Amino acid sequence: MTRSPGDSEVLLVTCDEELAESMAGTVGGADLRLVAARGEEEARTRVRSAAVELAIVDHVPGNGCLRLVTDLVRINPAVGLLVIVGPDDVEGAIEAARQGAYDFFTRPVEVSKVPIRLRVALERHRRELNDRAYRLALEERVLSKTEEIQENRTRLRSQLMATIESLARALQWKDAYTEGHSRRVAAKSADIARAMGLPREAVRQIELAALFHDIGKIGIRDDVLNKPGDLTGEEYEHMKQHPLVAEQILSPIEELRPILPIVKHEHEQWDGKGYPDGLRGEGIPLASRIIAVADAFDSMVFDRVYRRAIGVEEALAELERGAGVRFDPGVVGAFCALERAAAVTSGTARA
Question: What structural domains and CATH numbers belong to the chain?
Answer without folding.
Answer: 8-122 (3.40.50.2300), 176-350 (1.10.3210.10)
